[in-house]
Specification:
single chain, 14 strands, Rossmann fold, Succinyl-CoA_synth-like
């Protein structure tokens, strides 16, 4: 089964004519994703790797059924692009763009929740169900089909953990990078709920990091509701100095809030297997 994406998903790419949009359109097509159109205002009628470009999301929807949109526009344009996708009820919106203003992310998240639309990101590599499809910018060859579901705040660690699992002969059901920003459309608890009901997923890997409360909220969810599947968690940033932003905009410890140790403690108390290194993670999953 897997979650969020499947072999039949039909995707548009907002920002398809940009350098990154053009490149990742090709990579999506090579992964056999049905990229049915792209959207760049003022460039309707052009083609990118054989994919038709439209001026608006509405124009693309007139010609195609659209199940997902991948947004790859500059930060200042993300809000308007996301609003357009939300207004047209595209079920899955994946925002790759980094450095989206926090206020814009808040507006996007609130609008999406009211509209019943799922947003992944901003600042994400996207979602992949190996062997089935992806809406994202990850290299498909390092992922393999299997039964381990991954939820991660870090794109790089999503790559590393998945490739290490693949090397060990352990495949993945779906890998969801929720993004490293303070405000995100989908958090750990949201994806845990999806994996809970997924028949393909047998083990869940959570890759967290310092800052925010997403991991603690996940621990609270598991404590209050129980969880029928094994969860293995790794928290990055244990040695990060307080008050210093580390890589992601959301990876910052301030006034003792969002520390690695507080997250590790909460997760362990919820009965989740918490590991200190990625080698330990591989062993725990095996």
């Amino acid at each position: 089964m897997a979650i969020l994406v499947n072999p039949d998903i039909r995707v548009i790419i907002q920002g398809i004519t940009g350098k990154q949009g053009t490149y990742h359109t090709l990579k999506m097509l090579e992964y056999h994703v049905h990229v049915v159109g792209g959207v760049t205002p003022g460039k309707g009628g052009q083609k990118v790797h054989g994919v038709t470009v439209y001026d608006t999301v509405a124009a693309a929807q007139k010609e195609h059924q659209v199940d997902a949109s991948m947004i790859m526009v500059p930060p200042a344009g993300v809000l308007s692009a996301a609003i357009e996708a939300i207004d047209h009820k595209i079920p899955l919106i994946v925002i790759i763009t980094e450095f989206v203003p926090v206020h814009d992310s808040l507006v996007i998240r609130n609008m999406a929740r009211k509209a019943g639309v799922r947003v992944i990101g901003p600042n994400t590599i996207g979602v992949i169900s190996p062997g089935k499809g992806k809406v994202g910018i990850m290299p498909g060859y390092i992922y393999s089909e299997g039964s381990v579901g991954i939820i991660s705040r870090s794109g790089t660690l999503t790559h590393e953990v998945s490739s290490n699992l693949t090397y060990k002969g352990i495949g993945q059901s779906t890998c969801v990078c929720i993004g490293g920003d303070p405000v995100k459309g989908t958090d750990f608890v949201d994806v845990l709920r999806l994996f809970r009901d997924d028949g393909q997923t047998e083990t869940v890997v959570m890759i967290g990091e310092i800052g925010g409360a997403g991991e603690e909220l996940a621990a609270k969810y598991v404590t209050e509701n129980g969880y029928p599947k094994k969860i293995v968690a790794f928290i990055a940033g244990r040695t990060a100095p307080a008050g210093k932003k580390m890589g992601h905009a959301g990876a910052i410890v301030a006034e003792g809030f969002g520390t690695a140790e507080s997250k590790i403690k909460s997760l362990a108390e919820a009965g989740i297997v918490v590991v200190r290194t990625l080698d330990e993670l591989l062993q725990a999953v095996k």
